[in-house]
Amino acid sequence: MSHLICESEEAALPGMVPLPGTLPESLRLELIAFRRDLHMHPELGNQEFRTTAAIKARLEQAGLAPRVLPSGTGLICDIGTDRADAAGRDGVRPILAMRADIDALPIPDTKTDVPYRSTVPDRAHACGHDVHTTVVLGAGLVLAGLARQGLLTQPVRLIFQPAEEMMPGGALGVIEAGGLDGVGRIIAVHCDPKVDAGRVGLRTGPITSACDRIEISLDGPGGHTARPHLTTDLVTAVARVATDVPALVARRVDARAGLAVTWGRIESGHACNVIPQRAVLAGTVRCLDLGAWHEAPDLIHAAIDEIATLHGAKSEINYVRGVPPVVNEHAVTELLTDAMAARRGLHAIEDTEQSLGGEDFSWYLEQVPGAMARLGVRTPGDTARRDLHRGDFDVDEAAIEAGVELFTAAALLDGHRS
């Protein structure tokens, strides 16, 4: 923890502009309305044309020059990169990137008590990406205002990324399009319904898990259930793969790696007295440890082949690499810690555990140091158990202001330290 912490709205860092205080009421209300508009019009990965247009229009209104990604959805926008005094080593100060994911999920919105529920059938912002987008937009608007006053010494890049929910994630497209060119650090937030609005959860090291997808096809000649000994008992074979592979893999890696194979779909057969010729099994592979994640495909292929061969079934394996774990770098986590403490005090920060969920923010961290914070979205005092990826997911919109404060303070602190 550094000493550069100020909790007063009027306090300033040495040689710096005062940290921005409470958002102007007009901007706070505008951001809430913007988030609600996104929530009403959710778009799936690589289809976020309306969302992209709305973000672009607001940034251009603020005098900025956003660049739509080559895919046609998502965009990048730089702030303060043209300042002559924003030079550091080698004449160029590394950019601080702020990333938001903009896509929604293919599930129905089941909320009935809010006027901003989704207007698109079977589509919902059930993971909080509308909030992430609004937070980065709000931070960009605040920082653009400071840049116009000559008060932003840290160049900033806003990244509005498509297709986070699609493996292996839209982050790879952003990187390929040069989204990390000149970037020295990158930060992000993810909504957490277990944390109160106005607070954030932070940790150094892994904060999410790796997540891959696997689909297995088992084949046999089929036959009559009266004579399973004359054929391949395919239903038994797929059942043994389903139960034995997770256990076998778990015994071939360090238990602390948290490598878990979990099935979500199994299909085989059409009649009770017919042994089928084909069975399909699909699920996910999650892993807490980066090293074990790299080993996972070979381990799982070997385990499947062993069991399928034992039962006389032919196996075809489609292993789709997803994302590695998000591993928060120490110095960037410290930056977020100090930024939140400077704005709201140390009491607004809590430790957070490593999640088994996957996040393609990890691809950026394969290239540059960075960190992700858990943004609290639970209404204080609410004791109900809530989770992401549910049709009734919603947030306490006070989280938007907290997220904007976190990012703007991080930019100012990083500019002072650079």
How much beta, percentage-wise?
15-25%
H-E order: HHEEEHEHEEEEEHEEEHEEHEHEH
What is the mean predicted local confidence, pLDDT?
Answer: 92
Please write the CATH class name of the largest domain: Alpha Beta
Summarize the structure.
By secondary structure, the protein is an alpha/beta fold. The protein contains nine helices and 16 strands.
Question: How is this structure best described in words?
Answer:
It is a single chain. By secondary structure, the chain is of the alpha/beta class. The protein folds into two domains: 25-207 and 326-417, Aminopeptidase (3-Layer(aba) Sandwich); 210-323, Alpha-Beta Plaits (2-Layer Sandwich). The protein contains nine helices and 16 strands. The chain has helices at 25-40, 49-61, 129-148, 171-176, 234-250, 290-310, 330-344, 361-365, 398-417; strands at 67-68, 75-79, 95-101, 156-161, 183-196, 200-202, 205-206, 210-219, 223-224, 260-268, 274-275, 278-287, 314-323, 327-328, 349-351, 370-378. It has an eight-stranded mixed β-sheet with strand order 1-2-4-3-5-16-6-15. A four-stranded antiparallel β-sheet has the order 10-12-8-13, with helices on one face. A two-stranded antiparallel ribbon has the order 7-14. Strand 1 (67-68) and strand 2 (75-79) form a beta hairpin. The longest helix has 21 residues, at 290-310. 45% of the residues are buried. The model is unreliable at 1-17 and 84-90 (pLDDT under 50).
